[in-house]
Design goal:
six-stranded mixed β-sheet, alpha/beta, nine-stranded mixed β-sheet, 10 helices, binds flavin-adenine dinucleotide, FAD/NAD(P)-binding domain, globular
Amino acid sequence: MHARKIVVIGAGVIGVTTAHVLRAEGHDVTLLEASPAAASGTSYANGGYLSAAFCAPWAMPGLPKQAWAALFDRQAPFRWRPDGSLSQLRWLRDLWSHCNAADFSTHRQRLIRLALLSRVCLQDVVAQTGVAFDFQSSGVLQLFRQAPSANIMEKRLQELQAFGCDAHWYEPDQVRAMETGLSQSVRIAGGLHVRDDASGDCERFVQELLAWNQARGLHFEPNVQVESLELDTCGERLCAVRSKTQRWQADAFVFATGVDTARLLRPYLRVPIVPVKGYSVTVPLAHSDGAQGAVIDDTSKLAIARLGHRLRLAGMAEVVGHDRHIDTARCQQLVDHYVSLYGPMPEEGRQLWAGLRPMTPDGTPIIGATPIQGLYLNAGHGTYGWTLACGSAQLLADVIAKRPSTLSPNAYALDPARRELV
Ligand SMILES: Cc1cc2nc3c(=O)[nH]c(=O)nc-3n(C[C@H](O)[C@H](O)[C@H](O)COP(=O)(O)OP(=O)(O)OC[C@H]3O[C@@H](n4cnc5c(N)ncnc54)[C@H](O)[C@@H]3O)c2cc1C
């Protein structure tokens, strides 16, 4: 394969892993980023989970009922505020159309397979580069305060094991032995532990991987906001992208622009990605205190992760447009859920954050070529971008190189009608 000039737009976890793979294949790669630093968008302070087992699309059979109930419950993790845009309404209609058992199963399979590929690719990246990012490989534990039905749990374990996930049911005493900081007063009915899932600091990973690549020839240009595209006279091929003052020409362009992808490409392509807002709270905490590993509370949907000497709480899902305002009451809700499990959490040094998940209606990211030659997408990773990043980068590199891939690229194509089962 001959080396090409490739421009990647967006230096979040998706753009940086994409740039890493393409540069490693010998291409001349330039990475453009609107912000002064990489990972300042949604990749900045996410939940930290690298979890194949918990990947599932939002669009599931019970969602419409849950969403309706959430309209009347200020405390519900899900919140929806119409922003008056046609794209939001169209996206909700498409999301609703996937809320059936068959679509849920198809899309979940795609996510899990991509996550399993990502797990292998991440191991390769770490082995090759030695990047450090508070990686913790002790698994992910889903905590149940009420016992789930034995049949449902049995089916779930069988499904996960069929995918190759090392998933097991833990009795309450086993859960408490693992999470010694759990309050004695909290009722624990058991836990689903996935041993081969993991966690780590996404922002640190992105920064370190970028620095490693810059030292090996990757051109990184921060403070560059791509504003327009330049197509050839037939309107079929992308020749260049432009900021206010500069122009970049290349053989191929990858848009890894997260929640901004739909707006940026609107004049040229319809990309069904809307922002779904979430929050995180990070606090410095000695290793012996509080939660020890990555724990999801099934009742509140709170995600807790240990990132070295910090603890991160993450959760909430709000369809409220591009609003990045930090609602401190929502962050306090995360803290309250944590306190109900582990007891008091220090106030000093707390960092509150809000981020926008780039979400497609069927939950599957969009990875691959588009009807415009030279324009590739790697975006729409929703709730699982950190988990899916390294595999998505590999899949996209395979598409660009026109070589066979471990996964079927059609399953992640832009046009949903072309999406086939993996
Ligand atoms: C609260 C919360 C918790 C989460 N927890 C997890 C988790 O535990 N595990 C997990 O796997 N995932 C998690 N996610 C999801 C994950 O964080 C995202 O899927 C992922 O960060 C998306 O990465 P990205 O690179 O596509 O987007 P971003 O990180 O937003 O990167 C896109 C970049 O493109 C740049 N850009 C946009 N437009 C332009 C332009 N015109 N010109 C130049 N640059 C541009 C932006 O500045 C930005 O830096 C969570 C998300 C949230 C909000």
